[in-house]
């Protein structure tokens, strides 16, 4: 590879060569991070979620210490707007939930739609979200349930009296304030990404988006409820997912383009081996999941798909994709089978056990990294990544990982 190119071009070409299932000059080193940037350099979760600029120095040190080929998106979730809107479906550090300063951000599964509400949702999904879901998910948006957009389309101006309702006015003021606080946060957070790019490091994960099944489960029906509906009302599930995908997929791609992202990060969590049968996966999960990947590819984005949980029985199914356009990263999979089935079709990322990184010795880490290289690197199409996003890991183990890639990851 031409070392006279700018550093960001060298790293990007290395990464994209792996994505295309060919051989770069060496295997890319791309750690997947959760709260690592904060914890590793003495910043609390609460501090970074309040003032993202607190991560500027940790990011500089991270680049200097470990020299990754691809940097995971460093922008955290913001506390202030979540408190303003009254977010009921997440937990974070601080007085709002009375949690310690290093408590990780945590999503809380909840159902905002009963099994009897499918027909109402089908009649008008947008109205259902406006009047039924949002007022329950965010306690300070209760007034949205009183908004009737159809009345607003009439010729009688009196229909706009609804906006004189104090509850409606409060909800709209809350939305405006939440928007202002998000913009203020992003003005401090975007420079984190720019600092990496200016230093010569590409950034991935700037546009996370859930596939329709997970998105509908997470935000409307509830994970357990939707999985049970597959058994009791499979046709309704499929119709709901199609309607959801028709809107959410273009929105995810538009968001990625707005953020100048080159990838669409897709974390999967409902379709694991020990949670859903392969038959149900193929019938109810895969169709809209595949549709989302193809839409992203058509838009010039690289889907980076994180397959949470065990994924051994899904490998044949998820191999039905265009060659050299998708990255699959696995938490728990038979690496040899993944390479046999997906090798040459999709780039495989992962293989480095996060539990070994966190709890093992440098020798354990080197052994684990070399094993993953032996299985996944031959023929190209491999990115060295950890199995679960990192919080705590010793400098010695991080260096052992990086040094092993540098020594044994060359083609």
Provide an overview of this structure:
By secondary structure, the chain is α/β, with parallel strands linked by helices. The protein has a domain at 7-31 and 201-408: Alpha-Beta Barrel (TIM Barrel). The protein has helices spanning 7-19, 36-39, 45-50, 56-66, 79-85, 118-123, 125-137, 149-152, 166-198, 212-221, 223-232, 234-258, 278-298, 315-318, 335-342, 354-359, 362-376, 395-408, and strands at residues 71-72, 90-91, 106-107, 203-204, 263-268, 302-310, 327-332, 347-352, 382-386. A 5-stranded parallel β-sheet has the order 5-6-7-8-9. The chain has a two-stranded parallel sheet with strand order 1-4. Strands 2-3 form a two-stranded antiparallel sheet. Strand 6 (302-310), helix 14 (315-318) and strand 7 (327-332) form a beta-alpha-beta unit. The radius of gyration is 23 Å and the shape is globular.
């Amino acid at each position: 590879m031409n070392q006279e190119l700018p550093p960001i071009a060298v790293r990007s070409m290395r990464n994209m060569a792996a994505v295309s299932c060919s051989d770069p000059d060496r295997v890319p080193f791309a750690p997947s991070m959760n709260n690592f940037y904060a914890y590793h350099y003495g910043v609390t979760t609460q501090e970074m979620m309040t003032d993202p600029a607190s991560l500027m120095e940790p990011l500089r040190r991270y680049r200097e210490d470990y020299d990754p080929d691809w940097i995971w998106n460093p922008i955290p979730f913001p506390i202030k707007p979540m408190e303003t809107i009254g977010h009921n479906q997440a937990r974070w550090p601080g007085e709002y939930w009375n949690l310690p300063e290093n408590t990780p951000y945590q999503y809380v599964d909840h159902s905002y739609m009963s099994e009897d509400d499918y027909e109402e949702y089908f009649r008008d999904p947008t109205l259902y979200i406006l009047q039924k879901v949002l007022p329950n998910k965010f306690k300070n948006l209760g007034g949205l349930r009183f908004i009737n957009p159809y009345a607003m389309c009439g010729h009688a101006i009196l229909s706009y009296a609804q906006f004189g309702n104090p509850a409606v006015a409060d909800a709209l003021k809350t939305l405006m304030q939440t928007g202002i606080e998000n913009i203020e946060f992003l003005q401090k957070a975007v420079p984190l990404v720019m600092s990496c790019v200016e230093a010569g490091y590409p950034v991935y994960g700037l546009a996370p988006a859930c596939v329709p099944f997970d998105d509908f489960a997470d935000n409307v029906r509830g994970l357990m409820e939707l999985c049970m509906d597959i058994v009791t009302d499979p046709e309704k599930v499929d119709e709901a997912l199609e309607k959801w995908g028709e809107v959410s997929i273009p929105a995810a791609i538009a968001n990625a383009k707005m953020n100048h992202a080159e990838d669409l990060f897709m974390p999967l969590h409902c379709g694991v081996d020990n949670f859903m049968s392969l038959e149900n996966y193929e019938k109810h999960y895969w169709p809209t999941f595949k549709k989302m990947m193809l839409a992203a590819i058509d838009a010039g984005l690289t889907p980076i798909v994180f397959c949470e949980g065990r994924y051994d029985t899904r490998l044949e199914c998820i191999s039905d994709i265009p060659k050299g356009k998708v990255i699959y990263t696995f938490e728990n999979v038979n690496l040899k089978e993944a390479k046999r089935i997906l090798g040459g079709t999709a780039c495989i990322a992962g293989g480095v056990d996060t539990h070994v990184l966190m709890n093992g010795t440098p020798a354990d880490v080197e052994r684990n990294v070399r094993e993953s290289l032996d299985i996944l690197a031959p023929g190209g199409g491999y990115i060295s990544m950890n199995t679960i996003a990192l919080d705590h890991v010793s400098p010695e183990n991080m260096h052992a990982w990086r040094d092993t890639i540098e020594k044994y990851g060359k083609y």
